[in-house]
């Protein structure tokens, strides 16, 4: 990129790629345009670091704030408070052109590949758009780079794919185009929001493997958001478990999957359907109730109304801090006190 | 195959679309021909009337109509003294010139008028001309004599003394079969002999006799002798460009404003919505009448007002409804994520999405503006200098054309207007079925 390359990662800098500090992303709810009804606390106090070249997964039920977190990291939502720090600068303080440059450094892969591609553009145009936005004027260069990323996502022959419109591609091909588009500007962070949940089971693994191999080859940081714990083990180094806008547990992937600490994580893992014949014989314990309203979240520990280990007077009165019950394994639960 | 090419291909399956496109092509061809054959300045000059049309009859019908009904209407006959066998006789201090203007009259219908145009050159003394009318049966009628100025015109048909003497207006009386109460004209060899006395050695005289017919050209003429063909031809590019510009102007601005309102939301959207609601209850035609009456009736000013009032038209509500769900479309979120700016998102990502739905509306919108221009002209607010179909209709109405039986004067512009409307409507309806597939099953 020609512009003053302010990017989440320029080679040679050590330290985290992205630091998120006490991030809150709230959405104001209004009636008739002026009556304030309150806030939807989609992201409500989240702190973590993303290291270069690692692959992390954000896991949680729908409505737990994973996607809002992703959009805040992309600069699509303004944080209500807290900050996202990249290259020592907070996202909120960036000027328009700096924010644009930052965005070039963050790739975004969405859930619905068909919706993510403008239906009135062909693949050539779709891939050219980000480059035009970022000032790559030479048509030859755009064409060359488009062909290169298409090859990288294993869509070939490029001559056949480039003139096609999204509806002429299969779901898997569409998602590959989305990934290609995300890679065009050579990002250092790739955010994938449930990248395979809308795809046929048969192509899911292919796409996940593709993301994994691209991450390894380009040494980029991959943050993928999922509610599917069963695939996480193979593609992520670290897991963040989110509940009601907060990260309640984080650890290395194997440690977390084998020794879940937080009661919510335990329940989540118990709900995974193992291909095991014994499953038919016993009923699993799934926490009763529904995910809490983000408009009026329960006080203190958000999970306490559903928690089997609820301790009255503590869990509903004081926010649990991040305990470290195992080495490099944090859990926000009073049980570890 | 791109979706657009695919849709074009589909279009060829609708006979109505082909017919519509054919009609539009004919109109475009006429428009191009008009602009090429009669340059803009010349068209304005011609339409101002007067001198260029002196050889045309007043209110003459089209020739082909007369032919169609097997009529025997006379054409205009022009006899020039340059082609006549002029006899000269000199005398002391001057000359005597005899100019026999002879012509063959073939019709049994009466002509619509007789004029004699005389051009003379002299120093001081005007030439004196005595006029004698020769009928085919050999009879001679004295039409009197008078002194002629340099550019003179003798209107026999408006000579009341002559009319009283002959018992009927000159162009009837001079052509009637004798003793038949002026019921039909007598075909045969006619002549007007001018006996001019020139009182100077170097004086010159030339004359042109015009016997006006009752049919003229393809379109006929109006009350100012103007050939209606000029207005019908030139009305085509004017109508098409007015309709197209107004449709383009209103659609594009409306679309961009609707998209901007949807995209920015909040107060921008609120302001646009309120402006639209106010604009929707403003009556377009009375406002145009007011502008035309108080300011100027130039067609380009009218176009400007039409577009200005069309910007915040009801279309905004429709486009807004179509664009609102797109605001949250994942591909727009993706575009923001790679740094596309607001203008790019509105113009490149939102508008193209609803463009296909818009094209049929756009095509059917063109004739409504053509009709609007005609309505304005009919109300007397037509462009003061440009010939348009609406102005022809306005003239026709002002001259009570239908009362007098000049049907051609009303029918020709009306047919052209309907032809335009039909062409665009047929294409538009076919496009609607292609671009809005939900209609196709019906």
Structure description:
The complex is a heterodimer of chains A (337) and B (442). Chain A has helices spanning 66-73, 96-104, 113-116, 123-133, 139-152, 158-161, 171-183, 201-218, 229-235, 253-258, 263-270, and strands spanning 18-31, 35-50, 55-59, 81-86, 89-90, 106-109, 189-193, 221-226, 238-243, 246-252, 323-326, 329-331. Chain A has 337 residues and is of the alpha/beta class. Chain A has a domain at 18-94 and 229-274 and 284-336: Rossmann fold, CATH 3.40.50. In chain A, strand 11 (323-326) and strand 12 form a beta hairpin. In chain A, helix 5 (139-152) packs across helix 7. The termini of chain A are far apart. The relative contact order of chain A is 0.14. Chain B has two domains: 3-47 and 226-439, MetI-like fold (Orthogonal Bundle), CATH 1.10.3720; 74-212, Jelly Rolls. In chain B, 54% of the residues lie in helices and 16% in strands. Chain B has helices at residues 3-11, 15-37, 40-47, 63-68, 160-166, 170-173, 228-264, 266-281, 284-294, 299-311, 315-327, 330-337, 342-381, 389-398, 401-404, 407-435; strands at residues 77-80, 87-91, 94-105, 113-121, 128-134, 140-147, 151-155, 188-198, 204-212. In chain B, the strands form two sheets. In chain B, strands 2-3-8-5-6 form a five-stranded antiparallel beta sheet, with no helix packed on it. A four-stranded antiparallel beta sheet of chain B has the order 1-9-4-7. In chain B, helix 13 runs antiparallel to helix 16. Chain B is elongated. The mean pLDDT of chain B is 86. Classes of the chains: A alpha/beta (337), B alpha+beta (442). The A-B interface holds A 33, 71, 74-76, 99-101, 103-104, 106, 108, 110-112, 115-122, 129-130, 133-134, 163, 165, 178, 181, 185 and B 2-3, 266, 270, 329-331, 333-341, 344, 348-349, 352-353, 355.
Task: Fill in the keyword field for this structure.
heterodimer, A: 337 residues, alpha/beta, Rossmann fold, four-stranded antiparallel β-sheet, 12 strands, disordered N terminus, B: 442 residues, alpha+beta, MetI-like fold, Jelly Rolls, 2 domains, five-stranded antiparallel β-sheet, 16 helices, 9 strands, elongated
